[in-house]
What does this fold into?
Amino acid sequence: MKLILLGAPGAGKGTQATFISKEFGIPQISTGDMLRAQVKAGTPLGLEAKKHMDAGGLVPDAVIIGMVKDRLTQDDCKNGYLFDGFPRTIPQAQAMRDAGVPLDFVLEIDVPDSDIVTRMAGRRAHLASGRTYHVVFNPPKVEGIDDVTGEPLVQRDDDKEETVKKRLEIYHSQTKPLVEFYGKWAAEGDAKAPKVRKVAGVGSVDGITKSVFEALK
It folds into this structure.
């Protein structure tokens, strides 16, 4: 099973990625983890990436694709792999296609923007422990207070409504077009094109997981 998982920030990709990895026995590949590993190991690609990161710039697609190809040669990718948060843009998707990276499915977890804003803007965190709450779905026993330590909870900058809306704008302008990109490729009748599937990411986690496994048959 070789697939790309797409969805807006807060759509529940991380949760479903964990279930998919377990179900199919495949690694979840995140470019962030890959970058950190290569930088730490001091590989040529890692050193190249570090140069751009230290300068505050984005790591070029060519470097990322190089890392992806390198990662896919490792033993744990024999049965497949799951890309989470990559590709993010059409040039990255095109570069993957040009590099001949095999794919079976592109799965989009679709959640309305309004639901995502409610989900993310309601999050509260106890930073020291990493415990998280939600003002509606998983409130602490006492409003604004961590259940265990009694310390105040905070709203992370990433979860503030204006930040969430900005991240959604970026997703719609850069990443959402990937669905169209893969759809067009499939329509060309190319045997190498992945199947494009969409599941609704609202409802119970179990229900969504069931839909995800159905879509990947």
Observations:
- The mean pLDDT is 92.
- Residues 88 and 175 are 5 Å apart (CA to CA).
- The chain is about 45% helix and 15% strand.
